[in-house]
């Protein structure tokens, strides 16, 4: 697949990246239909945050679910979904109190990089929200 990788300040490239795959049974694979450049993406782009190696970019995204792990129960293949910038289980005490970004199982989506054609989303049931019905297609890339 193609995805954005930041190689250094001001050096964002669209390049080939490995296709994502289900790693944990709570994962989903989505086809990203839109992704944003967040203000926090600009910190490393501007050189404020340093990295010694190329890093994938993106943590704000929507898309269509292409595949789910065996333990995903509420998200289905074909759902149009909005995802959080932190993966969360949405079941722990912290999530139930409304602080999903501080979930005891939180994973940073930015480390996965959603400015790409596809993304593996951990803890899919807690991280993704399906928005039925699918938005009206504006291109052949919609649901
Ligand atoms: Zn949680």
Any idea how many domains? 1
- State the low-pLDDT regions, or none: none
Helix content: 10-25%
Largest sheet features: 5 strands, antiparallel
CATH topology: Quinone Oxidoreductase, Chain A, domain 1
In DSSP terms, counting alpha (H) and pi (I) runs of 4 or more, how many helices? Answer: 3
Cα distance spanning the termini: 19 Å
H/E series: EEEHEEEEHEEHE
CATH architecture: Alpha-Beta Complex
Radius of gyration over alpha carbons?
15 Å
Catalogue the ligands.
zinc ion
Could you tell me the mean pLDDT? 92
Q: What percentage of the residues does DSSP assign to strands (E)?
A: 25-35%
How many β-strand runs?
Answer: 10
- Which structural class best describes the helix and strand composition? mainly beta
Query: Largest beta sheet: what is the strand line-up?
Result: 9-3-5-6-10
Overall 3D geometry?
A: globular
Q: What is the fourth-level CATH superfamily? A: Medium-chain alcohol dehydrogenases, catalytic domain
CATH class designation: Alpha Beta
């Amino acid at each position: 697949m193609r995805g954005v990788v930041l190689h250094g300040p001001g050096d964002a490239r669209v390049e080939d990246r490995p296709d994502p795959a289900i790693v944990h049974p709570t994962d989903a694979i989505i086809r990203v239909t839109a992704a944003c450049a967040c203000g926090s993406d600009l910190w490393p782009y501007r050189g404020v945050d340093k990295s010694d190696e190329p890093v994938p970019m993106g943590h704000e995204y929507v898309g269509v679910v292409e595949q789910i792990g065996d333990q995903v129960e509420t998200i289905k293949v074909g759902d149009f979904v909005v995802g959080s910038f932190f993966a969360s289980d949405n079941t722990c005490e912290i999530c139930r109190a409304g602080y999903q970004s501080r979930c005891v199982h939180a994973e940073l989506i930015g480390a996965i990089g959603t400015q790409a054609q596809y993304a593996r989303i951990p803890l899919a049931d807690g991280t993704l929200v399906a928005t039925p019905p699918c938005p009206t297609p504006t291109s052949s890339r919609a649901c």
